[in-house]
Specification:
single chain, 314 residues, four-stranded antiparallel beta sheet, three-stranded antiparallel beta sheet, 9 strands
Length: 314
């Protein structure tokens, strides 16, 4: 009977304080999403870098932690303190630490044995593609938000949600995080996939092209260097592809020469009036004997040429 009364009081409390329940549900949802995000980035890391071996998994880390505990308990603390003190308490603490360290080492070794026996399968292409689709969906939302924040005139054309839109991406060697450089992998379908890429989101207004750009890293799921542009169709002098030989320096100060296929939008002589983005790397195509999908870039050029033609006719 008392239990039923408590349940009734709890239900009544939730009815009277819905905000508490809502906050709890929101917190649980956010925590679940964080776990999913960690799993996504782990899958991408394993896709490009291969499955983890026994030396990179939790068991080895446990062994290291246990070994450090044994070192502190059996050597470092006695060396520092016991030579000048015969404290039984300190001696007991050192002994306990040593025993605990040995137990931790044993647990870690058992974990390493399990990790060694466990079959590590490579991440298939379709898992990468599913995560890429998720990332691109997020980039589309980000592009709409940043464009609407930075370009007030966009609202005069109506909501960006109703505009025709295309998102183009291409491999990008420069990254915000030097510890997560560009990595390539040849898929079973013969298509080259890459971990870091430039993004160009094109929103086709009635008379103006709105552009959002950034650099995205799939291994940490983060986009950097967000920029927005607006370009009237009648000012665009050229849109299409160019093959370029680019001499550059990597973030490790290593000089490299790249043979790239570039998507180019030229709207004038000023530096800010020309946009170019690599969509294919001929060196990587030759190295891996694969192909790079540039169908989105080809579709963007086709649509933009049609928009330019329509404006010139009018």
């Amino acid at each position: 009977m008392e239990t039923e009364k408590n349940m009734e009081r709890n239900q009544q409390h939730e009815i009277e304080n819905p905000s508490h329940s809502e906050r709890h549900i929101k917190a649980v949802g956010e925590e679940q999403e964080q776990v999913k995000e960690l799993l996504r980035r782990g899958a991408i890391r394993h896709y490009f870098m291969g499955p983890e071996n026994v030396w990179t998994q939790e068991g080895f880390g446990t062994v290291v932690g246990g070994a450090l505990t044994v070192f502190f308990g059996s050597f470092l603390l006695p060396k520092l303190f016991l030579h000048s003190s015969n404290s039984k308490v300190l001696l007991t603490i050192c002994g306990v630490m040593t025993v605990i360290g040995i137990l931790i080492c044993a647990k870690g070794l058992y974990g390493m044995a399990k990790d060694y026996r466990r079959e590590s399968k490579p991440v298939p292409d379709d898992v990468h593609d599913e995560i890429l689709e998720y990332d691109i969906s997020g980039l589309k939302q980000t592009s709409r938000k940043i464009l609407e924040e930075n370009i007030p005139g966009l609202k005069e054309e109506g909501s960006s949600d109703t505009m025709e839109m295309l998102l183009v991406k291409g491999p990008r060697d420069y990254v915000a995080n030097v510890n997560l450089p560009l990595v390539w992998k040849l898929g079973e379908d013969g298509t080259l996939r890459y971990s870091n890429f430039s993004v160009m989101a094109l929103y086709f207004g009635k008379e103006i092209l709105y552009i959002y750009t950034c650099i995205f890293n799939m291994r940490n799921g983060m986009g950097k260097f967000h920029h927005t542009y607006e370009c009237p169709y009648d000012q665009i002098r050229f849109v299409g592809f160019e093959d370029r030989i680019v001499e550059t320096v990597t973030q490790n100060n290593k000089a490299v020469v790249q043979n790239l296929k570039m998507l180019v939008i030229d709207a004038g002589d000023g530096e800010n009036e020309k946009l170019s983005m690599p969509v294919a790397d001929y060196d990587m195509i030759k190295k891996y004997n694969g192909r790079i999908d540039i169908s989105d870039a080809e579709e963007a050029v086709k649509v933009l040429l049609e928009k330019m033609k329509g404006v010139s006719v009018n």
